[in-house]
Amino acid sequence: MKLLSAAKTDHILSLLDLVSKIHSKLCPGLSKPSGGHPTKLILTTICHAIHLISSGKADTAVNVAKSLQDVVDGSVSCETVHTGLRKTGLKAMHWTLEDWKRVIWSDETKINHLGSDGRKWVWKKSGETLSDRLVEGTLKFGEGNLMMWGCMGWDGVGYACKVDGKMNANLYVSILEDELQNSMEYWGKTVKDMVFQQDNDPKHTSKKAKEWFQDHKMEPMVWPTQFPDLNPIERLWSHLKRRLAEYEESSRGINELWERVQKEWEEIDTFVYQNLISSMPRRIEGVLRAKGGYTKY
């Protein structure tokens, strides 16, 4: 039988570790496994069991146990399989929407002054010559971009800020102190009411940031690396940039661009961010079905 590749295995185990730790944070009374004799399920066998579940080749511990007879020396009971899968966090595949409503999603993004970094494409009739419709003009000193940080939750988008200069650990901590805490106050949330999500950028996981989280008794969500398909705020950035692209005239500079960003950010409709958060159970399912690969999200 063909096992999952190391990369696929790492992706799936990172995801399962993520949802397991979130589940433990929100359900502190969840029982922990007790000591006992060594398990028959080594890491590669557990990965194969995950593959059987995620690929749809088995849907119960009994079916997995039967399939494992060919790769395990000796018999494996369905109870052993069930325990092994529970330890990987597979139980949290069924995390409810109410659980995801507690998450505050955060991220940074770059917004260009004049469109995207790449080319723009337009429809052109056969034999049509170049015209103002087909050619986008440029502005003197019109290049450049801005970086922004923002967050969102079930109750709305939070406070956003323009990042001046290079984002480092000190600046990130000041954003947590100001924009994040102001957002929590605006939503009427405390640390016990929410789970904070951030990616694994070095400034997010720096010693200074870790000390800030510890001082504020806040434990960020464990997030798997290289998993943009899982983060719904990525789609929120896309929505924001589409709205900015609808302006007929380009902004006259970075300051005017930031004014537009603030306006569009504050006017994002409720259904936009709530639909994105509502998609989390499907995102989790999609990533598992793709065995850690790409999904439509």
From TrEMBL:
GO terms for molecular function: nucleic acid binding. It holds the Pfam family DDE_3. Residues 102-246 form the Tc1-like transposase DDE domain. InterPro entries: RNaseH_sf, Tc1-like_DDE_dom, Transposase_5. This is Transposable element Tcb2 transposase. The lineage of its organism: Eukaryota, Fungi, Dikarya, Basidiomycota, Agaricomycotina.
